[in-house]
Amino acid sequence: MSAPQLVVHRDKELMAQATAARLITEVVDAQAARGTASVVLTGGRNGNGLLAALAASPARDAIDWSRLDLWWGDERFLPEGDPERNDTQAREALLDSVGLDPSRVHAMPASDGPYAGDADAAAAAYASELAAAAGPEDDGPVPAFDVLMLGVGPDTHVASLFPELPAVRETERMVVGVHGAPKPPPTRISLTLPAIRAAREVWLLAAGEDKAEAAGIALSGAGEVQAPAAGAYGRSRTLWLLDAAAASRLPQALYPRASA
Ligand SMILES: O=C1O[C@H](COP(=O)(O)O)[C@@H](O)[C@H](O)[C@H]1O
User: Fold this and answer.
1) What is the domain range of residue 143?
2) 187 lines ligand 1 (CB under 6 A)
3) What is the CATH number of the domain that holds 88?
4) Ligand 1 atom at minimal distance to the Cα of residue 46
5) Using CA atoms, how far apart are residues 186 and 24, in angstroms rounded to an integer?
6) pTM to 2 decimal places
């Protein structure tokens, strides 16, 4: 487990641009060291903002996109191409405009595919895909992703692990179907905390006033069942990337601010 490190940017635009630059460097370094890189994408406003910033960055061409494996931390269990799918939004924001190898883009199954209506079976299939990609050096049934990104929800959810729902308590399976999510749609697929913790680096993204309470709770010693973001950490680094609005309710000891 790596203790959280915080980086606070002035506003969400700067946070997205700086995180895009950070991601480019990480991917380029991983490709230089190992030939390939693996990144886990997140959905939501902050995740899509980051992808849009990456698409707009001239430095994006430093990445060899054909040697990048992309995975998702969660997905809304909806038909292929649905505008609310995280996969659809990521393709529009970035993926359709770079030269990815389609065989390395590992979208989570859609609700109208071979697992029609069965999110649990779809989750098991994604777990098998992850296990097939893991090598002996990964030391487990999922790859040691270079960077795994998670948007933090206003209720402290990450991926589709919502407070108090069974998925956040999962300790054995790497991917689960989520039922009854409080944020629409109710049926989802999600990596679990053990899968998230297999990543070398976990980056939590929180921008905007509506994330301030969640960031404050998760970084104040809350339990992971009540505040799933508190249970998300990487093997070698856990990085919280915030804007000033989202950092406004962090404990002073973590993020000192001049008193008003
Ligand atoms: O539904 C989801 O929400 C979270 C957070 O989204 P945000 O819009 O509040 O930033 C996201 O990280 C997750 O991938 C997504 O499925």
Assistant:
1) 4-257
2) no
3) 3.40.50.1360
4) 10
5) 33
6) 0.97
